[in-house]
Every structure is written in structure tokens, then in C-alpha cells.
Amino acid sequence: MGYDIERFVGYVNEGLLCSICRDVLEDPLQAPCEHAFCTACIHGWLVHHSNCPEDRQMIDVSLLRPLYRYMKNDLNRLQLHCKNREYGCEMVCSLESIDRHERECEYSQIPCSNAGCTVQVERRNLDGHLAVCEYRSRECPNGCGYTILSAEDTQHNCVAELRTELELLRSEMICRVEEAKHEMESRLDSQRRHMVQKESILQNEIEELKSQMSRMMSDVRSLMAAERQHRQELEQAELEKREL
């Protein structure tokens, strides 16, 4: 939607009005047929139509272009009242600068910054409202460290609040200890399984070494027996040689 034409001071050229909403162009786009529209208006139109609402020529979003520079300059020079005129703002400025003014206007309606408060006040009255707002917060004057709302002043009990906080801390600590305990037990179980597995592997290796040693001893005994047999044969041969 465009800017309400009633806000403008003086005459507004017909060419600076949106062909759809008939208000002064806001964020304008122009079709090849040179008819101009507010961006929101023409996009909404093209959802259900494929032609210009003025002359019915075929158009689509890809054919839309920014407004001619001279038209854009004429548009920016238009003078209009602030939207907060009904609240007392008497500012009149160019369309080019109206957004900047309205973002900072002292008569703008803004929400209270206190959580839970739904009141909207003029920016210039915000500080006064915050001073009396029932949702304003402050630190407990008794030194317990709690932040309390003004509406809760009569219900605030430092001892009860601190006791509740202590119980919460105790519960949290118990939970953390239990979590650490479970984690340590899990790690110990994992290490125990690893050690059992390692012990089994070592035991198998020891048995294999024993088996290899047994075979080696058997081979040594066989070699020693063969050596004795060979020595006896040599001695017998030596005797036979002497007899000859």
C-alpha cells in the first residue's frame, strides 16, 4: 500500500499515484507501459493476474523496473505530515526523509521495555512510564541479591527465596554427582573389559610360547640322541679300522 494522499501538503501529480491503491507511490516499480505501482500492490496483483491493471497489457514480475529518475526525484521532494500527527507531532518533511523522522519521532507509540507489560506509550513519555510501571524490576533492598518486580514487593521473602535457591542448587549438585559417578563406573567397566581381553590375549600368547618351547626341547633331545648314535657309530668304525 502507498502513502495516504491526505498526508501530503499541496498538489500531488497524478503520475506519482499508484495505479492500484491510488495512494502516493511507496517503494515504486514501473511496467514497460510506464504505469507505476507500489511494490506490494503490483506483486499482489500479479499473483492473480498477468496484465497491467490500467491498460491490460501483458506483464510479469521480470519486466518491472525502478521508477524513472526524474519521477523518483519528484516523488522524494513531496512534503507530507508525520504519521503521528494525530498524537501531536507537527513535523512536515520530504518523503525522502519521512522514514528517518518517524523512526525517531517523540510521538511514536512504542511498547514498554519491561517484560510482561503490554502498555504502549509515546517515546517521549517512556521514561515516565518506566518509573511507575508495575512490571519494573529492581534488586531486593534487603541484600538477598534477587531481582523483584514492584508488584511482588509484598510477597517477596528473602529467607524463603534463598531456601528455594539452596534446594535447587543441592538438587543440581546431586544430579551432577550422580552423572559423574555413572560416567566413572562406565569408564571403569570399559577399562575392566579391556584388561580382561588383554589378559586373555596374553594368556594365549604364553600357552603358545610354552608349546613352542616344548617342541624345541623335543627337537633338542632328538638331536642329542642322534649325536650319541653318530658318535657310537664313529667309535665302532674306529675299532673296526684298528682291527683291520
From TrEMBL:
GO terms for molecular function: ligase activity; zinc ion binding. The keyword Phosphoprotein does not apply. One of its GO terms (biological process) is regulation of canonical NF-kappaB signal transduction. Residues 192-243 form a coiled coil. Keywords: Coiled coil, Ligase, Metal-binding, Zinc, Zinc-finger. Residues 18-56 form the RING-type domain. Residues 101-144 form the TRAF-type domain. SMART domains: RING. A zinc finger (TRAF-type) spans 101-144. It comes from the Eukaryota. InterPro entries: Znf_RING, Znf_RING/FYVE/PHD, Znf_RING_CS, Znf_TRAF. This is RNF41 ligase. It comes from Cepphus grylle. The gene is Rnf41.
